[in-house]
Write a structure and sequence with these properties.
This protein has 86 residues and is α+β, with helices and mostly antiparallel strands. The protein has one domain. A two-stranded parallel ribbon has the order 1-2.
C-alpha cells in the first residue's frame, strides 16, 4: 500500500445546503472543526472504499431524519463506504 498525501478542504454534511455540502462523500475518522474562522484542521478521511464502517459509531447532525440518514448512507455506499451495524 502506498500512502498518498492530498490536501483539500471539506465541510461538514449540511442537509439543507445546495453547494455540494449536502452530499455525504466520505467518513471522517476524527472530529475536528475550525470554528468562527479558526485555522484549518487536519483530518483523516477515506474517500473511497471498499470499506465497512460500524454505523453505530457514525455521528449524524442533530435533528437528522431517518430518511436523510438513509439517503446519506446510500451516497456513502456509492463511494464504496458501507455503513453496517455489526
Amino acid at each position: 500500500m502506498t500512502a498518498v498525501s492530498v490536501s483539500y478542504k471539506v465541510w461538514p454534511l449540511n442537509f439543507a445546503a445546495t453547494d455540494g455540502s449536502q452530499n455525504a462523500l466520505e467518513v471522517w475518522l476524527s472530529k475536528k472543526t475550525a470554528l468562527n474562522g479558526g485555522a484549518d484542521q487536519t483530518i483523516v478521511a477515506p474517500r473511497r472504499g471498499p470499506s465497512i464502517v460500524d454505523s453505530r459509531f457514525l455521528i449524524w447532525l442533530s435533528g437528522a431524519t431517518a430518511d436523510q440518514i438513509a439517503a446519506a448512507s446510500e451516497q456513502l455506499m456509492a463511494n464504496g463506504i458501507v455503513p453496517r451495524s455489526s
